[in-house]
Amino acid sequence: MSKLKDLEWLFNGRHFDREVIVLCVRWYLRYKLSLRDLVEMMAERGLSLAHTTILRWVKRYTPEFVKRWNRLATVAGASWRVDETYVKIRGKWAYLYRAVDRAGKTIDFRLSARHDVATAKAFFVKAIRFQGRAPETITLDGYAASHRAVREMKADKSLPARTKLRSSKYLNNLIEQDHRHIKSRVNVMLGFKRLRNATVTLSGIELMHRIRKGQFDLTSVHLKDTTSPSIWMAVLSAR
C-alpha cells in the first residue's frame, strides 16, 4: 500500500471546508439521497453547491476514504457465502459479485461487465488478497461457472485443497438479503454511466455497509460513534 498523504494534501485547493466535503460524500454513499437532495440540504445550511461538484467529490475522495478505513478493518470469517447480483450501467446489466461470512460480515465485492469462469476466479483472487487468507468453506448457488472456478482454483492450488465447496440456496439467503442494502442505495442513483465510476461508488457504499456492521477496530482512534464527523476526521488523519 502506498504511503498515505496528510489531510492538508488531501483537501488542498478545495473551495469548501473538508468537513463539508466529508459530510456530503458520506451522506451520499450512506443514505438514499440524490445529488440534488444534497444540494438542497446544503443550501439550507447556507452553502451554494452544484450537484456536479458533489459528484466530483464522490469520485475523488471515495477511494481515499476506503483506503484509510481499510487500515482499521478486521478480518471476516472463513466460511463464505458467495452470490452475484446486477447493476445497470449505461442501460446494460453488469454483474456484482459479493460475499459475506456466516455472521453476515462483508468479505469483498467485484463489479464486472462479464459473467463467466474467469470473472468468478478474479473475484475469489481479489477477496482472498483483501482478507489475507483463503476460505475454509465456500457456499454457492447453482451457477455453474462459479462452481467450476472454485474447482479449477483448487486444482491449480490458487485455493487450498481443504477448502470445502457447498451448493445451498438456503444457506445463501444470507448474502441475498445482504444484497438488498446495497441495491436499495444504488437504485436511487438511477444507473451509472461508466464501469469505473460505478466501481468507485460501490466501494463507498460497501464501506458504509461495513461500518454499520462494525467491521472496523476503532480503538486506535479512541472514538466509537461512527456517525459523528469526529471519527471520520480521526480515521482520515490517523497514521
UniProtKB/TrEMBL annotation:
One of its GO terms (biological process) is transposition. SUPFAM superfamilies: Ribonuclease H-like (SSF53098). Keywords: DNA recombination, DNA-binding, Transposition. The keyword DNA-binding applies. One of its GO terms (molecular function) is DNA binding. Residues 78-215 form the DDE domain. It holds the Pfam family DDE_Tnp_IS240. The keyword DNA-binding applies. PANTHER family: BLL1675 PROTEIN (PTHR35528). Involved in the transposition of the insertion sequence. This is DDE domain-containing protein. It comes from Paraburkholderia caffeinitolerans. The lineage of its organism: Bacteria, Pseudomonadati, Pseudomonadota, Betaproteobacteria, Burkholderiales.
